[in-house]
């Protein structure tokens, strides 16, 4: 009798395992990435990817959509249609989606942050000026100055301290 119970438990456990392994579940929502769990950095990057990939709107022309490089160009004569026609709001919704799923550390391929692109769009719509979200990284001289400034100041301060107190 005991052998029959263990055989039943083993076959029942195997059936449950097979049911979980072969079930066609998909925990990743590609159309609404905000519904994903985003527990790991990889999952949040994938959700941000899906936010940008679902960036299709009837209000936006193909050249006015936000892509992974973060550049959007809108001429001066098209800015009113861009802002009032709904394309600016759609682009800001995409930025909000990316910010919701990846709140820290997201930058576009050019190095531009979400805030930079968002501020450029909002400023262009308020002032009715041409929109250009191209971003250039700081030049090497600026970053070199930042890397050398603190060590030089600390070395000079140490030398002044030593010479003052005759150590």
**SSE string, helix = H, strand = E?**
HHEHHHEH
Task: Estimate the helix proportion, in percent.
Answer: 55-70%
Helix count, per DSSP? 6
Domain count, please report it. 2
Instruction: Please give the radius of gyration in angstroms.
Output: 27 Å
Low-confidence regions:
none
- Summarize model confidence as the mean pLDDT: 80
Strand content bin: under 5%
Compute the number of strand runs. Answer: 2
Describe what this molecule looks like in 3D.
By secondary structure, this protein is an all-alpha fold. The chain has 2 domains: about 100 residues; about 30 residues. Helices cover about 55% and strands about 0% of the residues. It is built from 6 helices and 2 strands. Strands 1-2 form a two-stranded antiparallel ribbon. Helix 4 packs antiparallel against helix 5. The longest helix has 26 residues. The chain is flat.
How would you summarize this macromolecular structure in one to three sentences?
With 167 residues, this protein is mainly α.
């Amino acid at each position: 009798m005991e052998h029959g119970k263990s055989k039943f438990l083993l076959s029942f456990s195997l059936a449950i395992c097979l049911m979980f392994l072969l079930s066609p579940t998909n925990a990743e929502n590609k159309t609404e990435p905000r519904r994903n769990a985003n527990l790991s950095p990889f999952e949040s990057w994938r959700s941000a990817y899906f936010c940008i990939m679902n960036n299709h709107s009837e209000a936006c022309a193909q050249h006015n959509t936000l892509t992974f490089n973060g550049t959007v160009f809108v001429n001066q004569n098209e800015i009113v249609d861009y802002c009032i026609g709904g394309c600016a709001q759609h682009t800001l919704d995409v930025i909000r989606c990316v910010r919701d799923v990846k709140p820290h550390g997201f930058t576009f391929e050019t190095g531009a942050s979400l805030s930079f692109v968002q501020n450029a769009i909002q400023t262009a719509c308020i002032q009715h000026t041409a929109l250009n979200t191209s971003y250039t990284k700081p030049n090497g001289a600026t970053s070199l100055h930042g890397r050398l400034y603190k060590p030089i100041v600390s070395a000079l301060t140490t030398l002044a301290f030593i010479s003052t107190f005759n150590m």
